[in-house]
Sequence to fold (246 residues):
Amino acid sequence: MLLALPAFAADLAVLQNGFSIRHERRETVGTMTRLYLDASPQSGYIDIPSEQIASIEHDDSAPPQAAEQQPAPAQGIATQGTSIQDFANAAGVKHGVDPDLIQSVIRAESGFNPKAVSRKGAQGLMQLMPATASKLGVANSMDPAANVDGGTQYLHEMLARFNNDLVKALAAYNAGPERVERYKGVPPYHETYAYVSRIISDFNRKKLAQFAAARPATRRTAKEKTSHPAATADHSTTAEAQAAPD
Fold:
């Protein structure tokens, strides 16, 4: 059953993970909240588990202004391992981006193939175009660690440019920030809508799984504290456009 909820234009759905999604209208579909990304009848939408929405706020912020940035070189990244998860963890800590989000982007961009090359020439795990890789200081896009570090830096820049609006940032990563600014939201490309929806769905699936896994541990800890009173002791123990859509 589909239940419409009243919503004003340019609302923000603030998620439990700290990201926000700008939308023009919304409705409830079972346990999901469907967020429509623009006001047109053919608007693309994203389904978000309702329990993951912390609040709905009106978006009265000024449109973000493009800013010239001089990115730091992505060479010499320190990693603690050689897996894609290791690279995502290291880049996430360095650039302040959730490693789970980084891996969701990698899944959508390359399917975790470090040698992937698109028809337009985007390369590696996070599909960096040569010009973008050069600006980010990535000398070899086929080097998985450097590629993930550079792609994460670019994703961080898009999040900053669009005021932490995850939908706009992902659309900018796929179609270019200038197009997102031109259309004041997700450009009207089917691929970009599908790209954004795929990443957010994958990211939220991971967070829901982590939340569900943490629940039993929390209940066990609380039960143990109730069953076993603490003993007294004298010691204590004490995270340019990439490319036009292919």
Notes: The longest strand covers residues 53-58. The helical segments are 84-95, 99-110, 130-136, 144-161, 166-175, 177-183, 190-227. Strands lie at 2-4, 11-15, 20-23, 25-29, 32-36, 45-49, 53-58.
